[in-house]
From TrEMBL:
Native species: Malassezia caprae
Every Kinetochore protein Sos7 coiled-coil domain range: 80-157
GO cellular component term, pick one: kinetochore
GO biological process annotation, one example: protein localization to kinetochore
Name of the protein in its database record: Kinetochore protein Sos7 coiled-coil domain-containing protein
Length: 373
């Protein structure tokens, strides 16, 4: 049967590699034996470049002090360097193990292991199978980690609820302990020994319920009184503000009337002359008509007291208006005891005419003339 040309070339390459490895081992056999000699040789070759490598690994701290951002770049470069160094070490270790398998070891008596193409293919398949198992194991680990994270997230809220419940339980336990201590103090103060009976407890509870209801009623009544007092206070404050504004306006008018707007330091001589004239006229009319007293009990009512002859006694004419300064609507004549007096037909006719014409002065004159005639 004809052999595969590719397989023949692979066998030739393997045989050539074996021959080179044996030649290298024989060349350095006087320094050390077996694989240990080859390791020492390669380590020695690596040590020769340590000094140069150390120079390359030296950091320029002055540069990093001025430009701190370059530290991150240097870190990335060092990580890449050590990553490549790891690959180099793995490659070297693989070659050393491969060479150890190709030679005999005098110390252990192990003969060189010659692998055919079929053996290499089998080991490749075994390596692939192991790698596949590793991938599957990593996948299972990731799935388990995701499941653990999911369970942890799902348990977060129940755990928080348990924590809250535990805190509430501790609080209630503390309150119960305080109540037990207070109850023990009450028992010691009242001299009560032992536990209370059911009837006693019911009586105490009923008394406390009645007391609580009484306190609740008193609290409600007090709240209503407070609200009523607040409303009254607000009304009083509004009235006070209105009175303050009215007082300010009245003071302003009083100051204006006192100072005036005329000459001679603000005095209005014309206004003073008119006031004096009207005051004198009012006194003359009062004396002529026998008016002894003028009074206004309300804003719509005017009382005029007349000094009638001795046999008649004092008379009071009561005038009522529809509004302050408005029209005359009613007239009454009162005696000294403030009792109504009947008026004569002529006087009643005068009263009707005075009300119709809104002439209060004519009515006063008519009453005077009637009782002095």
């Amino acid at each position: 049967m004809a052999q595969d040309p590719a397989a023949v070339r692979d066998d030739a390459a393997v045989q050539e590699g074996i021959a080179r490895a044996r030649a290298l081992i024989d060349a350095h056999a006087h320094e050390a034996s077996g694989i240990q000699a080859l390791k020492e040789r390669m380590l020695h070759m690596h040590d020769d470049g340590d000094e140069a490598g150390d120079q390359e690994l030296q950091l320029d701290w002055d540069l990093y002090r001025e430009v701190p951002a370059t530290m991150e770049q240097e870190e990335a470069l060092l990580l890449d360097y050590f990553r490549k160094l790891k690959f180099i070490y793995l490659e070297l270790e693989t070659k050393l193990r491969f060479l150890a398998d190709l030679q005999d070891d005098p110390e252990t008596g192990q003969e060189p292991q010659i692998l055919s193409t079929a053996d290499v293919t089998q080991r490749e398949h075994e390596c692939k199978r192991v790698k596949q198992q590793l991938v599957e194991a990593k996948t299972r680990v990731r799935d388990l980690r995701a499941e653990i994270d999911r369970l942890a997230d799902a348990m977060a809220e129940p755990w928080a609820a348990v924590e809250r419940g535990t805190g509430e339980a501790h609080t209630l336990l503390s309150e119960i302990t305080d109540m037990e201590l207070e109850l023990a103090k009450i028992k010691a103060a009242e001299g009560t020994q032992g536990a209370l009976t059911t009837a006693e407890l019911e009586a105490v509870c009923d008394e406390q319920i009645v007391t609580m209801q009484t306190l609740d009623d008193e609290t409600t009544h007090t709240v209503h009184e407070m609200e009523q007092a607040k409303r009254e206070l607000n009304d009083a404050l509004r009235i006070l503000e209105r009175l303050k504004s009215e007082r300010s306006a009245a003071e302003k008018h009083a100051n204006e009337a006192k100072l005036g707007m005329g000459r001679d330091s603000g005095r209005d001589w014309e206004l003073e002359r008119l006031c004096t004239k009207h005051a004198a006229m009012l006194e003359t009319l009062q004396a002529a008509l026998g008016i002894t007293r003028l009074a206004a009990p309300t804003a719509r009512e005017l009382h005029i007291t007349l000094a009638a002859p001795a046999r008649e006694g004092q008379r009071t004419l009561q005038l009522q208006f529809d509004e302050p300064g408005g029209a005359l609507v009613d007239v009454q004549l009162l005696d000294a005891e403030q009792a109504p007096i009947s008026m004569s037909d002529a006087l009643q006719r005068y009263c009707r005419e005075a009300i119709h014409t809104n002439h209060a002065a004519a009515l006063v004159q008519a009453v005077w003339c009637t009782y002095v005639a």
